[in-house]
Amino acid sequence: MHGTPLRRAEPSPAILAWLSDHGVPYSVHRHEHAATAAAAARADGVSIRAFVKVLAVETDAGVVGLLALDAADRVDLALAARALGARHVRLLAEDEVGRLTPLDEAGALAPIGQLY
């Protein structure tokens, strides 16, 4: 098979520490790197409805926010803008998210705003 070799997706130590420090029970499910929430669900052998995807957005005022969605859903940017009290929001590009979360794997953004 050609292309990028498979690699293990590992949980961020910062996320695990935050969960432990706040008494949040969790379990780690290891699987090969998955590019989408649907692929991660398949790799874990569970329904996509068991996953949350987190997207980073920026408002027209320059405020960055995190959106937690059911992994099967698509983001409604107009609804997100209203929820954030903005006229417009845009999704952050992968490199922008990478600068926001340098300790996390690209695409593995956790819905814990206090980490960032």
Helix content: 25-40%
Average pLDDT level? 80
Task: Tell me the strand order in the biggest sheet.
Answer: 2-1-3
**Low-confidence spans: pLDDT under 50, at least 5 residues?**
1-8
The termini sit apart by 37 Å
Would you give an account of this structure?
- The chain is built from four helices and three strands, in the order ααββαβα.
- It has helices at residues 13-21, 37-44, 77-83, 94-100; strands spanning 52-59, 64-70, 89-91.
- The chain has 116 residues and is of the alpha+beta class.
- Residues 1-8 have low confidence and may be disordered.
- Strands 2-1-3 form a three-stranded antiparallel β-sheet.
- The termini are far apart.
Question: Which features does this protein show?
Answer:
116 residues, alpha+beta, three-stranded antiparallel β-sheet, globular
Summarize the helices and strands and which ones pair or pack.
Elements (H helix, E strand, L loop, with lengths): L12 H9 L15 H8 L7 E8 L4 E7 L6 H7 L5 E3 L2 H7 L16
Antiparallel strand pairs: 1-2, 1-3
Summarize the structure.
This protein is of the alpha+beta class and 116 residues long. It has helices spanning 13-21, 37-44, 77-83, 94-100; strands spanning 52-59, 64-70, 89-91.
